[in-house]
Amino acid sequence: MNRSMKRLMYAFVLWLIAMSVVSYCSVARGQDFLPAVDFGTSLRVIDGDTLMVSLHYRGDIVVRFAVIDAFETYKNRHIKIQEEVTGLNATAIVKRGLEAKHIVQSLLPPNTPIVVVLGDHRYGYYGRLIATVYIFRNNKWINLNEYLLTKYPNLFLETDIERRQVK
């Protein structure tokens, strides 16, 4: 192997190491180098604001609706916050949470084609992908996040969920 070939090989190895470090650091900060728009299908609805989806670039992953907070579907530590904010009791909150989940299930049965658009903060506190979800209805793509907020304001609350990042 001649000298110029060795230099080229050395430069390539250094470049690979540098890209590995950059990739590791960005993933550790909750970022990735994948496109901000991805497409795929719905797999199942977890609750009123969280889905399991299969995406082209990311595979099977949990997606959290950006800027939406649905009521809880069971009693947990977050229900106290919703009680304080809304003035509703835990039973009423769970009832609304289950209703919100059923609405999302009716709009997103398994294998529904979807498009997800990521914002600046791609991953939330629990490692879920934070995204705006689009579905195809009546020959056009509809922003599902916006649709839920406007059509069902008593079941879906607007929130700053996109700004809550991995700590």
Written description of the protein model:
This protein is of the alpha+beta class. The chain has two domains: 1-33; 34-163, OB fold (Dihydrolipoamide Acetyltransferase, E2P), CATH 2.40.50.90. The chain is 36% helix and 32% strand. The protein has four helices and eight strands, in the order αββββααβββαβ. The chain has helices at 3-28, 79-86, 90-107, 144-151, and strands spanning 37-47, 50-55, 59-65, 68-70, 113-123, 129-137, 140-143, 156-158. The strands form two sheets. Strands 1-2-3-6-5 form a five-stranded mixed barrel. A two-stranded antiparallel sheet has the order 4-8. Strand 6 (129-137) and strand 7 (140-143) form a beta hairpin. The longest helix is centred in the N-terminal third of the chain and has 26 residues, at 3-28. It is elongated, with a radius of gyration of 20 Å. The termini are far apart. The relative contact order is 0.18. Residues 22-29 and 162-167 have low confidence and may be disordered.
Task: Identify the quaternary structure here.
Answer: single chain
The major pleated sheet works out as:
5 strands, mixed, barrel
Strand content: 25-35%
CATH topology of the largest domain: OB fold (Dihydrolipoamide Acetyltransferase, E2P)
> Order of strands across the biggest sheet?
1-2-3-6-5
Helix content class:
25-40%
